Amino acid sequence: MAGAILNLINGVWKPAQDRRTLKSVNPANTDDVVGVFPLSGKADVDEAVAAARAARELWRLTPAPKRGEILFRAAVLIEKDKGSLGRLVTREMGKILPEGLGDVQEAIDMAFYMAGEGRRMTGETVPSELPMKDCKSVRVPVGVFALITPWNFPTAIPAWKIFPALIGGNTVVFKPSSLTPASATRLVELIVEAGVPPGVVNLVHGRGEDTGEYLAAHRGVDGVSFTGSSAVGEALAKACSGPGKEVSCEMGGKNPIIVMDDARLDLAVEGALWGGFGTTGQRCTAASRVIVHEKVYDEFVERFVAAARRLRVGDGLDPSTHVGPVINEAQMDKVLSYIETGKKEGARLALGGGRNSSGALVRGYFIDPTIFVDAAPSMRIAKEEIFGPVVSVMRARDLQDAIAIANGVEYGLSSSIYTQDVNKSAIAERDLDAGIVYINAPTIGAEIQLPFGGTKRSGLGRREAGGRGGSLDMFTKWKIIYRDFSGRLQKAQIDKD
User: Fold this and answer.
1) Has residue 211 got a pLDDT over 90?
2) Which of 12, 147, 153, 424 has the fewest Cβ atoms within 10 angstroms?
3) What does the pLDDT average to over 264-291?
């Protein structure tokens, strides 16, 4: 049964002003309508931004520990609702249920972590060069933030943005993906239940190309945090550069796993399976490239293909499923097109390569796990982000060759090396041009207590998640305070007569 999904503006749940709507459907079964949500227009965005601006003074002056208490209550409420919210994520986005529950767990972790920052949001107190004078730095809010999130992590990524923004004293207008509005709305409902005042969190639904773009460029918005494709993020950052807004864009990836000749192949195969086909390959950190030392290449390929062949494709709510659907028909067509490109480029198709429409799967967007072997680094399937269950396997002569292949793309989000040699792992840590490096683990699995983001076309601006060096630096700005209690004019850096 489809449910009505609404916008939240100044504490009131309401439809779009012109009453236009869209449907959210289950990608595993398109007959299943998850909900009907508003297609918001400019007037809705204007109203939401105005509400956020009106609420910002009260929220800014709420002591950070009190803001943290509200976030702590939100964490407890999300934790209690984890089972039902995880099932909603799986139904609406398609990932298997353990991953849907993991998506929600990330939101819980971030809420608890940022709640603690309410009593830990440190600056510096340093000595002055002058007597009877002190010097300190403090974090203050940026203002009103536009938060624009994707569909592949419909509760985790919103939580990465909403909770750091709130603990920093900002108010927000949140525009989730039009493909996962129900999951995002349930998260906001729980945040409101925790006691966030009206206007502090506002939610507007709609398409990215109109609602999202208008929100990001809005004159009443002081900062923008975006997660999505590199092309959209780069255009958004350019559009926001003139007004001087704070901008963070977490974007795409073409992430490599390097398998050295001394690696434990059983562990490397397991990591490549999880990295390449977890979330059906629909992660910005997915391991879509595996670069294998030529001495173990044939054995690795044999083991990898055999293991991937055992993966079961199906509805993510079915406990026996390993790989769910891709998000929609357009994404399915894009992935299938890349598979055809790989064949034409001369890579050898070792597994999969087509849509799976057997039985009940005919009502969903299913693609079999696909492996290309003997791929060349110059091929499009080895350079461009596909965002689906497609992995390209390539040969490398040695560690230096493997690192050169890994770095030879326009992305630099996540990377991995499997080796038992501490010296090789140290060289990889140093030389891989990526924001994240894993050793003897796949390219997915970042934890929320450290910053998340990449180099090159994978990221612009501040990093997501974490505390210092990550979200707190995005959602606060520094104020430096000098207090002179000498009762006389003192001149710093001026020689005395």
Assistant:
1) yes
2) 12
3) 98
What is residue 1's predicted lDDT score, i.e. its pLDDT?
A: 37
Model confidence, pTM: 0.95
Catalytic residue selected from 47, 99, 249, 284: 284
Measured CA to CA, the distance from residue 198 to residue 170 in angstroms comes to 13
Distance CA 158, CA 326 (A): 20
Q: Residues 127-144: what's their mean pLDDT?
A: 96
Neighbours of 204 (CB within 10 A): 25
pLDDT tens column, 165-206: 999 999 999 999 999 999 999 999 999 999 999 999 999 999
Domains of the chain, with CATH numbers? 3-251+458-482 (3.40.605.10), 256-439 (3.40.309.10)
Marked catalytic residue, from 117, 250, 385, 464: 250
Looking up tokens 């004293």 gives 169
Count of CB atoms within 10 A of residue 40's CB? 29
Looking at residues 354-366, what average pLDDT do you find? 95
Q: Is the pLDDT of residue 234 over 90?
A: no
Active site residue 250: yes
Report the candidate in 376, 279, 263, 261 with the shortest Cα–Cα distance to residue 322: 279
C-alpha–C-alpha distance, residues 410 and 253, integer Å: 9
For the cut 70, the answer to whether the pLDDT of residue 244 exceeds it is: yes
Helices 181-193, 156-167: axis angle to 10 degrees equals: 30
Give residue 21's pLDDT. 94
- Residue 284 annotated among the catalytic residues of the structure: yes
